[in-house]
Amino acid sequence: MQSINIVWLKRDLRLTDHQPLQHALEQDLPVILLYVFEPLLLNDPHYSERHWRFVSHSLVDMNQQLAPYGGKVSILRGEILSCFKAIQSLYSIANIYSHQEIGLSCTYQRDKQVAHWTQAHNIPWIESPQGAVIRGAKNRKEWDKHWDRIMRAPIAHLDLNANWLTLEHLKDYTLTLPKHWLKKAKGQQTGGTTLAWKTLDDFFQRRGKEYYRSISSPSASRYACTRLSPYLAWGNISLRELYQQLLGHWQVKGFRRSLVALSSRLHWHCHFIQKFESESAMEYRCVNQAYDALLSQSCLSDRDKLNAWKQGQTGIPLIDACMRCLHHTGYINFRMRAMLVSFLTHHMNMDWREGVTHLAQLFLDFEPGIHYPQFQMQAGVTGTNTIRIYNPTKQAQEHDSEGVFIKQWLPELKHVPTPLLFEPWKMTQMEAVMYQIELDSCYLSPIIDLATRAKEARDRLWSWRKLDQVKQESQRILQRHVRLDDHN
User: Is the pLDDT reported for residue 488 higher than 80?
Assistant: First the structure.
């Protein structure tokens, strides 16, 4: 039986700076590049069709790059262990190579099953670190130095002239990518390494100089930010590749302030994924466990209001504009994401778990290791981070002062002038008629009163923060998760 190496692709859909692939290519054995659409993820509430479309585009792009070398990614559908067993019936699996996955509970349980199976069959499964994340880290001692060392390490250039094998004869598992996954979605970014590098090049050639001043604007950030977050989330480009490109432009005139800001965000990227790696139970519970009882006692449950938030029908213009933008494009900037979570958990007084999978489905760049620590941080249930209750009206006035973003996504308000645009419920009935607003519009009667709910949230959150059980848990969190020079 022929011996082979398998490179199991997950969130690392590229052919560069890829340690598992590098290890496989260094051996004189045929290589199978494997991507499996697993039912446990296809049916998981964190994911939606937009994610599988992005993955499909990424795989097509990889195959176009591999074609000159006679290679191709084998695309299967099924439970991963069933796929491995089917491959094992045809070949002798010498090694399985993959990146460590800092994923959801379902992928962690799946990985434990894979580890048990590979051990039982004496098949080495070699996992490479993902970025600068340290598996099983108990604290952050020397973590920043480790990050810097990993990001500055040489990038290996892979020789794709290899003995490639494909699995097209596994008829029970082979998947032909659905046509609707291969179509481009208007307004949403398309996956693939080729577009990742074009997006990065465009940032350095014309967009990046405005990054530092435009990062908070819901409109300007769509152009001035790198827009690489989905390419990083799905591994079309590595964080190290991006960081070294940043260093290569460090002396370019006019870029320094933007690159300082971007460099900080790249540190932040691994910092939060490391938090999730070190305490992945935060997928289900508050990282500060004292808050679980507090939320269960105090949070409201209202399906109608929750659905209004999900669909962008709350009557608060910037909240609704952001949510509708997400539905259409899969992207809004960091500040607007934080505001959506703050509004749900603070103004609406709902448990953060009520909205966590909804936003995951919408974020094209959904990354579990960033999503959960960030969601809890913005919900104010860590006990260690600054409590931020975002005022959507103030955010609109400061970051969408002309109402460009709001009017783009809320056409029913297109005739309303500023400043009424930011607080349309203050309109008189005559003004509503003048500006063509339906009298039953949610913008004349929002689902909550912002001022009242903000005061209630401040009182609630700060009273909780002072509780002994919250403080005790906070000390544990600081010891485990906080870099010595960073308390955020």
Answer: no
In the predicted structure, residue 261 carries a pLDDT above the cut 90: yes
Model confidence pTM above 0.70 = yes
109/99 Cα distance (integer angstroms): 16
Query: What number of residues does the chain have?
Result: 488
CB 186 within 8 A of CB 272: no
* 35 annotated as belonging to a binding site for a ligand: no
Q: Which residue has 């009242």 as its token pair?
A: 452
The pLDDT value recorded for residue 483 is 56
CA contacts within 13 A on the Cβ side of 368: 23
pLDDT at residue 259, rounded to an integer:
95
pLDDT at 168: 84
pLDDT digits (tens, 9 = 90+) for 297-356: 999 999 999 999 999 999 999 999 999 999 999 999 999 999 999 999 999 999 999 999
Asked if 238 contacts 372 with a C-beta cutoff of 8 angstroms, the reply is no
The alpha-carbon radius of gyration of the chain (Å, integer) is: 24
Is beta strand 92-99 parallel, antiparallel or unpaired with respect to 3-9?
Answer: parallel
Whether the CB-CB separation of 191 and 54 falls below 8 Å is answered with yes
Structure confidence by residue, pLDDT tens digits, 167-222: 988 888 999 999 999 999 999 999 999 999 999 999 999 899 999 999 999 999 99
> With contact defined as beta carbons under 8 Å apart, do 191 and 58 qualify?
yes
Residue 169 has what pLDDT? 85
- Domain annotation for the chain: domains and CATH numbers: 3-128 (3.40.50.620), 189-278 (1.25.40.80), 286-481 (1.10.579.10)
